[in-house]
Design goal:
This protein has helices at about 1-30, 45-55, 65-75, 90-125, 130-140, 145-165, 185-220, 225-230, 235-275, 280-290, 290-320. It is mainly α and about 325 residues long. The protein has one domain (about 1-325): Orthogonal Bundle (MetI-like fold), CATH 1.10.3720.
């Protein structure tokens, strides 16, 4: 088991290095940081602009490979460089990582669990009303873009707040600035702000995993070992949970790591719409401002998150299927 995980970790680390390096190279070639200094009145001298861009390691007159070498040298020592404004990328990264992880972890855990349960329930009750209801709702959510779903939830939240006469849901920012009160007041306020963006991502996760899990569960239910377990006197519920669901979870676990990358993209729209200052919003703003170092840092974050999701999937896969431990 330990050798298997070490081998997988080494593979993932190489992939993270390749993905991050490719992102830096692509950003260096396609983004134009010099454009941030154009159009100013009076225009800054070209020598001043060159000196500033060289200091930030973003000078397009410097060969890309040289800039990449300088960037890698800093990353190896834990320094992602500076933003286009001259601020520390590390400081901005540390501030925004926690914001994004709140959304990603909540959506992954809750959405994944509920999606698996919904898919398994639909498979067990195939062609019954509950199965059709889960299928229909899943297709509706899957066919709705994330930004449309987020706006629809905002509109619904406004309606609920107006109907109740108080703010049940908050839909702008991570917290209420200047809020007075103790720990529980601030905790409740953050939960109010957390509900809608989390729900936006959770609904998408439920829809995806329910469809995937239903298909996997239907394949397992027709297998001989499930019927044999029941024929030997095992209760149907026990046979379904201990044998059928456990076996059907293996494909879903494999899919988990790949879906995590999709979730990060969905979080980008969600953060922007709900005013959460996380990694997704930072990526959009960095591309707009031609901030090469920030784009590379966000890409590294996404790659590391997918790496960790892949490791979690490998561990779960080894638990569900002991044969993988010796492979």
């Amino acid at each position: 088991m330990a050798k298997f995980l070490l081998r997988r970790t080494a593979n993932y680390v190489i992939l993270v290095a390749v993905a991050t390096s490719a992102a830096f190279m692509l950003a260096s070639v396609s983004l134009k940081p010099r454009a941030n200094f154009e159009g100013r009145n009076p225009p800054p001298p070209e020598a001043v602009v060159d000196a500033r861009l060289t200091e930030l390691n973003m000078n397009d007159k410097t060969p890309v490979l040289t800039r990449y070498k300088n960037w890698v040298s800093g990353v190896v020592h834990g320094d992602f460089g500076k933003t286009i404004d001259g601020n520390s990328v590390n400081a901005e990264l540390a501030r925004r990582v926690g914001v994004s992880l709140r959304l990603l972890l909540i959506a992954t855990i809750i959405g994944g669990l509920l999606g698996v349960l919904a898919g398994a329930w639909g498979a067990i009750r195939q062609y019954q009303f509950s199965d059709h209801a889960v299928t229909m709702l899943s297709f509706v959510i899957l066919s709705t873009p994330v930004f449309v779903l987020a706006v629809a939830l905002e509109i619904a939240a406004v309606g609920v707040n107006n109907a109740v006469g108080t703010k049940v849901f908050e839909y702008t920012g991570e917290f209420t600035p200047g809020l007075q009160g103790g720990f529980w007041t601030h905790a409740g306020d953050r939960i109010q702000h957390l509900i809608l963006p989390s729900l936006t991502l959770i609904l998408g996760e439920i829809a995806i995993f329910s469809r995937y899990q239903r298909s996997a569960m239907l394949d397992v239910l027709g297998q001989d070992f499930v019927r044999t377990a029941q024929a030997k006197g095992l209760r149907r519920r026990t046979a379904l949970m201990k044998h059928a669901l456990r076996t059907a979870l293996i494909p879903a676990v494999t899919y988990f790591a790949f879906n995590f990358g999709i979730l990060i993209v969905g979080a980008t729209f969600t953060e922007k719409i709900f005013g959460w200052h996380g990694m997704g919003e930072w990526l959009v703003d960095s591309v707009t401002r031609n901030d090469i170092n920030a784009v590379a840092a966000v890409t590294c974050f996404a790659a590391v998150m997918i790496l960790l999701a892949g490791l979690a999937a490998d561990i779960a896969y080894a638990i569900l299927d002991p044969r993988i431990r010796v492979s």
